[in-house]
Task: structure prediction
Amino acid sequence: MVRALNFSAGPAALPLPVLEKAQKEFVNYQGTGMSIMEMSHRGKHYDAVHSGAKARFKKLMEVPDSHEILFLQGGASLQFSMVPINFLKENETAGYILTGSWSEKALKEAERIGRTKVIASSKEGLYRSIPSRSEWSDEKGLAYLHITSNNTIYGTQWHEFPDTDVPLVADMSSDIMSRPLDIGKFGLIYAGAQKNLGPSGVTVIIANKQWLSQSTNSLSKFLDYNTHASADSLYNTPPTFAIYMLGLVLEWAEEQGGTAGLERKNKEKSALLYDSIESSEGFYSGHALKESESHMNVTFTLPDQDLEKDFLAKASEHGFIGLNGHRSIGGCRASIYNAVPYEACEKLAEFMNSYRKNHPARSFTFQ
Amino acid sequence: MVRALNFSAGPAALPLPVLEKAQKEFVNYQGTGMSIMEMSHRGKHYDAVHSGAKARFKKLMEVPDSHEILFLQGGASLQFSMVPINFLKENETAGYILTGSWSEKALKEAERIGRTKVIASSKEGLYRSIPSRSEWSDEKGLAYLHITSNNTIYGTQWHEFPDTDVPLVADMSSDIMSRPLDIGKFGLIYAGAQKNLGPSGVTVIIANKQWLSQSTNSLSKFLDYNTHASADSLYNTPPTFAIYMLGLVLEWAEEQGGTAGLERKNKEKSALLYDSIESSEGFYSGHALKESESHMNVTFTLPDQDLEKDFLAKASEHGFIGLNGHRSIGGCRASIYNAVPYEACEKLAEFMNSYRKNHPARSFTFQ
Ligand SMILES: Cc1ncc(COP(=O)(O)O)c(C=O)c1O
Ligand SMILES: Cc1ncc(COP(=O)(O)O)c(C=O)c1O
Ligand SMILES: [Mg+2]
Ligand SMILES: [Mg+2]
Ligand SMILES: [Mg+2]
Ligand SMILES: [Mg+2]
Result:
C-alpha cells in the first residue's frame, strides 16, 4: 500500500502503526473472540482501555492532580454550549477573544445563555494574528475568558498563553498535544479528537476540579460536567472504539518523545512549508502574520484564483489530499497535525517549489 | 478464532461479516491509502458512506418521506434532554409512561425543563409488564407522550404501539430495527446504536419533519434538531467511523431479509430461552409477564442468590459473556440483539437445561 499524502483539516491523518495495530486486533481483541467494540463499557477489557487512555493522557500532557480529564461526545461544538451552560451565571459576563470563525461560533452559543463581552478581536485584520495583550479590554470580574488556541481555518496560533485572574477556557481542538502545555493555567480545555488525538466521536476535556465544583446547571444532568466527572466518563455508554483509538494514539505519542518531541517535529514540518512560501518571492503568500503563524495549519494563497485552482488540481493529481482552504474563506491550507509525517511535508514543499518554477511568468502577468 | 458467546446488553455483539469487512479495509479504504477515519467528513468517500447509510436506513426501516433521519452524538441519554428542550414549551405538559429505569431517567430530565405527567406506570408491579391502555390517564393536550419501546434492564417490550392524537416519542435504543415498524405513528424515535445498529458513539433519530419545524429552542444551536436536519447531520464533525460501521450493519441486515427476517429470527431465538425458563419447573423464573416479554433481553432469576452466583460463574467458565443482570437489579439477563446468532442462543438454552438438571435438589431445599 502507498500511503496517501494526507493534509486534511480533520478528521485527519492517523499514525500508520496505530491503524495497523487496531486492524490486527479488530475482530479478535486479545484472544477474546470479540471486537473491543462488542464489549460492555463496564467490563474488565474495556475498563483497562478506558482507564489506560486516561492515565496515559494525564502523564503525557502533565495534567496536574488539580484537574480532571473527561471523555465526552458531541464534538467541540457541543462544548461551545456546555461551557456557558455550566459556568455563565445570571448577572455574570463571559469574555471572548475572537481569533477566527470557531471563536465566533463559541461566542454565539454563549450569547444564547447569558451576558458576553468581546475582550479582543483580530477580525478587522482578517484574522491574520492573535491580538496582543495591550489590545485587550479589561477582563476583571469575568465568569471566564474564552480563547481558541489554534485557528484551524485562518492558520494562526497562540504561542504564549496569558496570565489572568479569571478562569481561562481554551478550545484546543486543532493543536492539543502538539506541544508542552502548562495546564495549571487553565480553568478548562476542550478538544475534539479528530485532529491530533484520534478519530472523530470523542471530545477530551481537561477541567480544574475546584472550578467544576462551582458550576451550576439545573438544565440537564447530561450537560453537567460534574455528572461525567463523578462517573469517570462512564455515566452513559461512551464512544468505546474512539477512546480505544485515542489510547493507541497516546501510546504512539509517547514513542515520539511526548509533547516536547512532537513539538520539535511539528516545528520542523511547518518550517519546510513556511520556507517554501517565504522564498517564493510573493508567488505564495501566507495568510498569518509571522509571529502568529500556526504549526498545525499552514494557510496561503496564490497570485490569482485561476492559478490557485490549477495549483490545487495539480496537487491533487500528484496525490496530495485536503489542500483546499476551508469552504468559508477559500485559498490553500496544509494541515500538518502530529501524525502527518515529515516526509509528506517535504514532498509538499518540493511540489510547491517546482510548481512555482513552472509558473514564473503567470505569477507576475496576472496581478 | 472461536467467536465468543456474547450476550452483552450494549455495546453488544456485531455481525462477524461486518467486522471482517471493516477489518479488511481498515487501513486502506478502497485503495485510497487512507483509513475511512482519516478522511474529511466533507469529502467524496465519506459522503458516499454517510448518504449511503441514511438511504439504506430509510429503505430498510421504511421511513416515510414525512420523516427525517439524523445521526447525532451523545447517546440516548442526551436525547432524554433534547426531546423536552425542543418540544416542551412553557405552559405545556409532557406525558411519560414508565416501564423501567430508562423511562424514569427520561422523565427526570424532562422535569428539569418543564411540566410533566406520568400517564401510566408499571413500577408497582416491579416493571414486569407494559401498562395496558385501560390503565392510562388521559393524554389529551400533551406536548408529547414518551414511551420506552423495550426495557433493557427489566426485559419487557411493547408489542403494539398505541394510536394517540399527541406526538408519540419512543426511546427504541434496545429494539430498533428488530422488527417491522409503522414509523408514521411516531413524532420522534431515538436509539443509541450500540445494541442493534453498530458501535457506540452514534445515535439515530427519526423525526416527523412537520413536528420538527414547530420545535422551539433558543438555548443552543447544537441542541436544536433543526440544525442537524438542515445540515444533513453534517453541522459539525460526525462520528464518521461509527456511521461507516452502521452502514455495514445495515447492509448485513438487508441480507437477513430486512426487519421481517430479523423479527422472525429474533422470535426464534427468544423462544429457545423462554422455553428453557418455562420448562424448568420454577428453577428459572422469568421477570417479565408473558404478554410483555422482550425478544431482545431475556431476564430471569434462580431460586436463590447463591445459586445465581454459581450459575453465572459456571456460565462464564463455559464461555458465555454478559449474562449478569443490570447492576441496579441483579439477576440474569441474556441480551439477544439482531447480531447474536441462533446457535449461541441454542448453546445457552442447552447450558441452562443441563445446569438445572445438575441442581435439582438445591433448587428446592434452598427456598
Ligand atoms: C478550533 C476548532 N474548534 C471547533 C471545531 C468544531 O469541532 P467539532 O466538529 O468537533 O464540533 C473545529 C473543527 O474543525 C475547530 O477546528
Ligand atoms: C432503553 C435505553 N435507553 C437509554 C439507554 C442509555 O443509552 P446511552 O448509553 O446511549 O446514553 C439505554 C442503555 O442501555 C437503554 O437501554
Ligand atoms: Mg479559525
Ligand atoms: Mg476545520
Ligand atoms: Mg429498563
Ligand atoms: Mg443497559
Remarks:
- Residues A 236-237; B 10, 75-77, 102, 148, 152, 171, 173-174, 192 surround pyridoxal-5'-phosphate (ligand 2) (CB under 6 Å).
- Residues 16-255 of chain B form a domain with the Aspartate Aminotransferase; domain 2 fold (CATH 3.40.640.10).
- Residues 141 and 166 of chain B are 7 Å apart (CA to CA).
